[in-house]
Specification:
By secondary structure, the protein is an alpha+beta fold. The protein folds into 2 domains: 3-55 and 297-438, no CATH class; 61-290, no CATH class. It is built from 13 helices and 10 strands. Helix 2 runs antiparallel to helix 8 (292-334), helix 8 (292-334) runs parallel beside helix 11 and helix 10 runs antiparallel to helix 12 (423-430).
């Protein structure tokens, strides 16, 4: 019997038992779709994270602050330490010029006085355990179009528009002033605040004057960019700081000669540049911090996740393979007379084995093709849902693509597994004696 004849017999057998074949193919399709979608999503997530790390971002950035003098290294004959080097425009230009630095994002600060509204929203009243009075705190600002590169995440609402002058976001510390938790963060969104920038005078009857603006809370964020309870765009902070800096010194941080930046966020040219860039910034005279150990941990955990997801998909395929084995064993029992006729007209054991293996391979191939296409569709659908969430968080979405190795692996893997699952039934059919096959059960 030629391979062509064996293939024709296998195809005819599938058509004759179409209901069982459809259910078997469906089982393989679901398993292949699960495996394909998991691998595609895991690969897209890994690529997105590693690209973010390699291009810079919250996990790959370096936070720079003014370094305090190290008193522990001073001896009796050493000169007395001076004040820490300010983070000013000179420092910004110098750090940007360092080798290995891709970009630098400045985080500005300004002292403010916040007067909450006299009448707070009903939703907030229902969850707030107290009502704060006038709040003295710090407002921080940066170029919000670069927010995805900073350690800022949205808890509720959204970030202020980059050039908005009347929008702010507040932090969890601000929520604590009302005694409300993170899960009720949405209750403060939409509330209006009066925010004043103080200016201190050394003479006259009025010692402090304020520059007052009305601001609307558009979001609640968790941020580690700098110390401050109010986040807004850089232009708003610059205006507030300019007003305050026009007077006398306020405290230790804001005045005509104080540092304009609360911190700098340095993005290295690559993961391998984080350590050297940190060393160069330290040599310039500033303290740094970067989650290098966290980056390595993220990479390891991503690999573990890929292994786990692949294992889940393989288990599903194995279960589908067992279904193929069961269906083929039932087919052998039903087709004993057909097997006997084939052997009676001269078919050898290997010819019968080929027919059953080809039948199993057809079921696996069909299930693999449909499952790969279905898995691609599932991955695209879930990817669009994830991208909507990331867009809402002000982050760049993931690009879901179908790697050729995944597509080929899904089809070939399902076919090979079906062939393996059909080995036992094919061997049993091939070993069935012609006389026994032709006889009654």
């Amino acid at each position: 019997m030629s391979w062509r004849d064996a293939f024709a017999l296998a195809r005819r057998s599938v058509y004759r038992r179409l209901g069982r074949a459809v259910l078997t193919i469906l089982a393989v399709t679901l398993a292949a779709a699960l495996l394909t979608s998991l691998l595609v999503l895991a690969g897209a997530a890994r690529t997105r994270v590693l690209n973010q790390l390699s291009k810079g971002g919250p996990l790959a950035g370096i936070q720079v602050a003014a370094a305090a003098p190290n008193l522990g290294q001073l001896d009796r004959d050493s000169p007395q330490p001076g004040p820490p080097k300010p983070l000013d425009d000179v420092a910004l230009r110098r750090i940007r010029a360092l080798r290995g630095v891709a970009s630098v994002i400045a985080v500005e600060q300004a002292p403010i006085v916040v007067i909450p509204p006299t009448r707070i929203p009903r939703a907030l009243q229902a969850v707030a355990s107290r009502k704060p009075g006038t709040i003295q705190t710090t407002m921080i600002g940066t170029e919000l179009q670069d927010a995805s590169k900073l350690p800022i995440s949205i808890i509720s609402g959204r970030l202020p528009a980059p050039n908005a002058q009347t929008e702010v976001a507040v932090t969890e510390t601000f929520l604590q002033r009302y005694g409300i938790g993170k899960r009720d963060a949405a209750t403060v969104v939409g509330m209006q605040l009066e925010i004043g920038s103080p200016r201190k005078y050394a003479f006259g009857n009025v010692r402090v004057r304020g520059r007052w603006t009305k601001q609307t809370i558009v979001g609640v964020v968790a941020q580690q960019a700098a110390n401050g309870e109010v986040l807004t765009g850089a232009s708003s902070v610059e205006a507030a700081r300019s007003w305050t800096a026009g007077g006398e010194q306020i405290g230790d941080s804001i005045g005509p000669d104080s540092s304009p930046y609360a911190g700098l966020f340095v993005i290295a040219a690559g993961l391998d540049q984080i350590g050297p860039v940190r060393s160069r910034i330290t040599q310039v005279g500033y303290s740094t911090s970067a989650p290098e150990n966290l980056i390595n941990s993220v990479q390891r955990y991503l690999h573990v996740i890929e292994i786990v997801l692949s294992g889940i998909g393989v288990i599903a395929l194995v279960i589908a393979g067992l279904g193929i084995t069961n269906a083929m064993l039932a087919s052998v029992r039903e087709r004993r007379r057909e097997i006997g006729v084939l052997k009676a007209i001269g078919a050898r054991d290997r010819d019968v084995r080929h027919v059953f293996l080809l039948e199993a391979g057809l079921l696996g191939l069909a299930g693999g093709l449909l499952g790969t296409v279905g898995g691609w569709g599932i991955a695209r659908t879930l990817g669009s849902v994830v991208n909507r969430y990331l867009s809402h968080q002000g982050l760049v979405g993931v690009q879901v693509g179908m790697p050729a190795v995944v597509a080929l692996g899904g089809i070939v893997g399902a076919t090979v597994l079906a062939l393996l699952a059909g080995t036992v039934p094919a061997q049993r059919a091939a070993g069935l004696p012609a006389r026994q096959a032709m006889g009654d059960e």
